[in-house]
Request: fold
Amino acid sequence: MPSRSILSGLIGDTQSILPRRIIRYCENTPPKVNSSSTAAYATASAYQNDPEARLADRPRWQQTPSRMTAPVRMRQYKPNNDYRVNDDPRQLDRVYVQFLGQDGDRMLTDEVKWLAVTHKSFDQGRRGYNDRLAFFGKRIVDLQSSLAILSSHAATGSPALPPDNFEREPFQHPALESIPRLTEEVRKDVTSRKRMSDIAQRYGLSSVLRWKPRKASDLPGSGVELALAQALYAIVGAVSLQKGGEVANKIVRERILSQLGLS
Reply:
């Protein structure tokens, strides 16, 4: 810490620049000792006795980040609206094996596995949620379902066209025969929210879905179909990001579209 004589000289030169409160702070604040053995590194005994240190090592899916926790509750507590979600990693692994097949529990990292089944309503979104994974996964499911619709109707030919008043003949090609069958209504019906949520329930995603329903006594009215469909899409998106598009496309064809009668 500089002596008072040095500070007095500095004050005379910088009095017009530095505020007086900064100068007073420098005069009255004692020097800080930075010891690497005490400040930068914690001993084993200190780590064991510090609950915050142990809490910081836990993964994010297991806890709410301490800096994102408010000191007081802002919303009034609603009695009889508690909803318990799964926190057992073994149950989660069983669902992934059931959905993705053998070694499905090893396709994704632990953090991503929990993130894919976490809706943004769970814990106010403070532990992460699956919106972006679901957005990406839905694009993959939409593409594969469109290709499956085209290939499934290729053998039946195109529907009959109405007669033309001017006796014109439209251009025809075998590769274009099934395109008129691929309408927006057909694709939306194939990948409807109800169908996707039913498939998710068959694979047991409802037992590991982490979300907070508006009313625990009325899950359909709280949007459980949307949450299940979103979790299904999120798993597909996560697999595509970590294992590649070829693996994700195969899962969509074998695990989702096959349940709808498409391949």
Observations:
- Confidence is low (pLDDT under 50) at residues 33-47.
